[in-house]
Design goal:
Layout lengths: L12 H9 L13 H9 L4 H6 L9 H10 L13 H21 L41 E5 L2 E5 L7
Antiparallel strand pairs: 1-2
Helix pairs in contact: 2-5, 4-5
């Protein structure tokens, strides 16, 4: 998977403002409302997995959060954004707000819930921190079906074909 920025440049404050103005709403910002995300998501026929990685649709979602939120919401990553109903789109936003906020607070990305970890509660060991991300060919933590991996938008995409079949 891609690591780090694809470009690093020193820019002026005015140039920064232009870049920031092109970003979608940020799930980590209390000033961001989900309306623009919901509209952009539901107007596009692109796969929802691509839309979640598009910083003009929603800011800050990376490959781990993309895979995990789609699993947690039981959404097939290849369905068009326009196929999602309002509840599904809002569910994505609300879950991203929660798990990304947890990641900032905890200093690491843990998306599994205690009932899907061997220890049953507390902090997840690294091997149990995710449902599908980097778990290709391993059994789904929920249904046991092998997790799949494919390339989509030049990034690895992980999903459970059973839990995310819709």
């Amino acid at each position: 998977d891609l690591r780090g920025p694809t470009a690093c440049e020193v820019i002026t404050e005015a140039e920064r403002d232009v870049v920031v103005s092109q970003l979608g709403p940020d799930p980590l910002s209390t000033e961001s409302a989900p309306g623009a995300f919901l509209d952009r998501l539901r107007r596009s026929r692109s796969p929802v997995a691509l839309l979640l990685m598009n910083q003009a649709v929603i800011a800050g979602v990376g490959n781990v959060y993309r895979a995990e939120v789609l699993f947690r919401q039981r959404i097939n990553p290849r369905v068009p954004g326009s196929s999602l109903d309002g509840g599904q789109a809002a569910g994505l936003w609300n879950d991203l707000v929660a798990i990304m906020g947890d990641g900032v607070r905890d200093g690491r990305i843990i998306t599994t819930t205690a009932d899907h970890r061997s220890e049953g509660s507390g902090t997840a060991p690294p091997s149990e921190a995710h449902y599908v991300y980097k778990r290709a060919a391993l059994p789904c933590r929920v249904c046991g079906t092998p997790v799949l991996m494919a390339e989509l938008g030049a990034r690895k995409l992980y999903w459970c074909p059973e839990c995310q079949s819709g």
